[in-house]
Amino acid sequence: MLRTEGVYMRFGGLTAVADLNVEIDKGEIVGLIGPNGAGKTTAFNTVTGVYRPSEGTVRFKGRDITGKKPHEITKRGIARTFQNIRLFKDMSVLENVLVACHLRLGAGVAACTLHLPGYLKKEREARAFAEGLLDSVGLRSLADEPATSLPYGKQRRLEIVRALATKPELLLLDEPAAGMNPQESLELMEFIHRIRDEYDLTILLIEHHMQVVMGVCSRMYVLDYGVTIAHGGPEQIQKDPKVIEAYLGVD
Amino acid sequence: MKIPNKAKTALALAAGAALIAVADASLGPFAVRILNLSAIYVILALSLNLLNGFTGLFSLGHAGFMAVGAYVSALLTMSPAQKDMNFFLTPIVPWLREVQLPFLAALLVAGLCAALVGLLIGAPALRLRDDYLAIATLGFAEIIRVLITNAQPLTNGAQGLKAIPKYSTTWVVWGAAAAAAAFLVLLLRSSYGRTIKAVRDDEIAAEAMGVNVFRVKVTSFVISSFWAGVGGALLGHMITTIDPKMFTLMLTFNILLIVVLGGNGSITGSILGAIIVTVLMEALRFLDMPMNLLFIRTQGLPGLRMVIFSLILMIVVLYRQKGLMGTNEFSWDALSSLARRLGRKGGK
Amino acid sequence: MLAIDNLSVHYGGIHALQGVSLEVPEGKIVTLIGANGAGKSTTLKAVIGLVKASGGSVSWDGEPISGLPTKDIVRRGVVLSPEGRRVFPNLTVDENLSLGAFCRSDKAAVAADRERVFSLFPRLKERMRQKAGTLSGGEQQMLAVGRAIMTSPKLLMMDEPSLGLAPLIVKMIFDIIREVNASGTTVLLVEQNAKAALEVADYGYVLETGRITLSGPGRELLADDRVRAAYLGEAG
Ligand SMILES: Nc1ncnc2c1ncn2[C@@H]1O[C@H](COP(=O)(O)OP(=O)(O)OP(=O)(O)O)[C@@H](O)[C@H]1O
Ligand SMILES: Nc1ncnc2c1ncn2[C@@H]1O[C@H](COP(=O)(O)OP(=O)(O)OP(=O)(O)O)[C@@H](O)[C@H]1O
Ligand SMILES: [Mg+2]
Ligand SMILES: [Mg+2]
Q1: Does domain A1-77+168-251 have CATH number 3.40.50.300?
Q2: Neighbouring residues of B125: CB distance < 8 A, sequence distance ≥ 6
Q3: Which of C100, C127, C150 finishes a domain?
């Protein structure tokens, strides 16, 4: 599904990501963990086209997508959330999701402005789809509230739903559990499993809540200073001395 | 009895049309001129607001697009004889001398030409960071002016064009204003409109949601240029003379002022702002005349009008930083809740 | 001492705080825990004057501060380290820290605090000239905490300081809070990591949909079945 081949990302003299080789199969939930500033978000940014990697190739479903624009990559089926929540702040909760629906609407500026019947039908369908998604995370009743008036934890859920509205095949989640308490994190884990099955997704996620990572990911990559220092299943990673030293600490 | 909102809107539109008809028939030519000027400013303010308020692009090139529209429509509607009278220094190029289109067709072509220029300017300029766009568009507007001044055989240069057919009747300008408003309301309420606002709120997130940010910006820029061209054309057909000096930064600034005053990102605000500013500018004209103030007799202070006007503006901006409407729009529900609140206050 | 008495906040029709009363005694660490949307951030914002209270009162050091503009409240030594970092993205790390110390005149102490922040977060020292907006999420969080320390407040209110930090650093953050407190700063802490928060806190309050439903010394709450079930993710 996703494959990065020797991806490097440098900022001036700083190598944020070095020789990243990640491979994810369809239907997997894979984790990307590591200390602060290890290069996890940067790795996401090279996959989603926010940055063009300094070196290396990114392949999605076998096709080279290195250096494509972010919107083209989204169109091909990769969606993401942002670590520093980036909702459209002057828009309602529902509108935030509807923006993401536009991609698959297939209506241009003329059809939209003229409110052609074809467009109206698709718009109604998009609304129903968006409302259903909001319902699935318990945000339906807040649909008309301004997005930024939501408490932090709900803004995170809205980000996930908005990404889902682009109908992705691969979903990249950047710290979905940040701002949630342990109980809410448990619910989030169930939610992640559920959307994977329901929407037939492959998921790559960055997370610092070990309970969540170990609970949902079948395997994970560990980065430190941009370098992949470990790779394997939850148990293996938790025992890895390098990972404990750089990231987990001893309990 | 509860009247559905759609019916209310239809009634209000009919009432508005009736009001304009009455005003057109009963007001003197001076007042009608102000009425019509308001409509033209409505179009111009709306088109600039699409960029500034809804797409989050700061453009200072509006006067340039207006100039394109004004010249194109004027040249396309004048008869060969009228053109000959204008171009007495350098003769007009023959092909342009002959073409003559009906007014509405010329108006459309004027808008399309402005839109085309918008595309040519926008495609490179919108790749720049947003702060550079203001400078690039400002430069463009100046270049257009220089081009018009120097392209004698096409534009009659610095002499400008006189005796342009006076097609901008009350019905035409208000019809065009209504069309512009309806166009923008429909556009902005649609799915495409949401992507426009998304680009304004967060470009990176918009890209990640599959919005082609560059394409959206260019589209918005082209649409805005189109309506600026139409507005410029109507202005030419109203005052019947145009010359390059009309289309300076000052003109863009006036429109910008209406947009900010009415509320950046509010269609209702731009409409109200355009009408208020136009009427006020005329109403305050007496300030420039000699006055008798009880004991003091002033000699007439040209410029006093602008001073007072700027003061009013500053006060409005101080007390309502987001303009009259903020980013809010008129809606029947908002109106009735406002009426209820006022009623409760009055009842107490 | 910070005393919040019967505080109410409305957002339009939403009654976000419905008569919240709590106390933060001088020199103590008090924590406020609760689910998403309970009103924790709203409580902190109301204290600092960022949202208007619709009822009740807040006093600090025996003087009422409700209704005062935020800058006056900050002048009295009450500081909020807001949720979701809010660093100045176009300023460098160094400039962000300097802004934290903006109101202070004791140059030597400011310099000492700067050194302290750098020794707590060596990463910030490495990146002194980097623009804060290009830092990683966790690095920005370190900067936000560092900036709060630089203000040297009498009362420090922290809204989710551990957000987005790696497990190792999270442990460190709670040590830092303890240390800041030991050096004389009163702390009001809002945290999703309820376990760690209750461990460092002298006293805790549980907020549920705008009301305080439970309070007690940190250790007692940690042992409370309701708290364990709802906020620690353990079956009750
Ligand atoms: N545009 C940039 N310019 C300079 N340095 C950058 C830029 N973007 C990221 N960095 C640096 O690259 C490193 C990796 O950042 P990244 O955001 O990928 O970390 P991360 O693994 O996501 O960390 P966290 O868990 O804290 O979010 C950081 O040290 C960061 O400061
Ligand atoms: N600006 C606002 N406008 C309208 N409602 C708001 C606004 N800010 C907060 N609210 C509402 O007030 C309630 C409390 O929100 P608050 O942000 O205080 O929650 P919280 O306890 O901090 O949650 P979290 O743990 O997710 O940060 C929520 O229901 C939220 O929707
Ligand atoms: Mg990150
Ligand atoms: Mg909060």
Answers
A1: yes
A2: B132, B133, B136, B137, B140
A3: C150
